[in-house]
Amino acid sequence: MEWIGEAQAAGWDVLLDAAAFVPTNRLDLSRWKPDMVALSFYKMFGYPTGVGALFLRKAMMEKLRRPWFAGGTIQIATVQGDGFYRAPDAAAFEDGTVDYLSIPAVENGLRHLASVGIEAIHERVHCLTGWLLARLGELRHGNGQPLALLHGPRNADARGGTIAFNFLDPEGRCYDIRRVEELANERRISLRTGCFCNPGAGEATYGLTAEQIGSFFHLAEGMSFDELRDKIRASFGMEVGAIRVSVGLASNFADVQRFLAFAGSFRDRTIADVGTAGPRESCGAAPRDSA
After folding, report:
1. pTM (2 d.p.)
2. What is the radius of gyration, based on Cα positions, of the chain?
């Protein structure tokens, strides 16, 4: 992360999004010195949901500005005098009542991680991820065509425990990702399907041009992600979503092996054999990572 110092030397303030990094890695802030760090306790130990933290250098408090205020973020306000005084320090950015019933669980979660050891967690996830990537890459249909299209690095180096991919039929076409999720649910395997959190990365991954994707964003009635997927598949024969599985603190070899057995069940099956998913109201409303 040498770029942190380079950006700061060029006059930039650096926000490091460490939400995906810290669950399985030790972040040494005495070595890497961003101005701000964001993380999610939910991603670190699964509970409580909705509780995270933004760490700031004290000097950054003077730089932060917000064009509004809400309950708890000010000391006093006036209507006729058209003014207000902010609450001191972090309180000026914490709207409403903090989730004080969940916050005590953070201490228990941190103690649990410390008792296991972040290095042990890192090694476990690294090994499971590497093994899963290797096995997925080896899966083939009877005609020799790959069964999985992997996105991102093909090994466990410089990546976390989340793997994005698509299952392909013997002709190289993507199975309906929502149907894959339905079949996984039947086997009590929890995985995530839907759009990429970074839409630009998804569009680049599947080779969608600005003209192709832009043609669907001039409709007065708008559309959901699933409707966009259907239009792109019908118009260009392309997929625009992916399947995602994650390994973490609670994952073990049996979990990964069970998922690979599920993956192998698609061998030599056509798209018609697998079928398509039924309608649903929304796409991936809540993240659901594999066990």
Report:
1. 0.80
2. 23
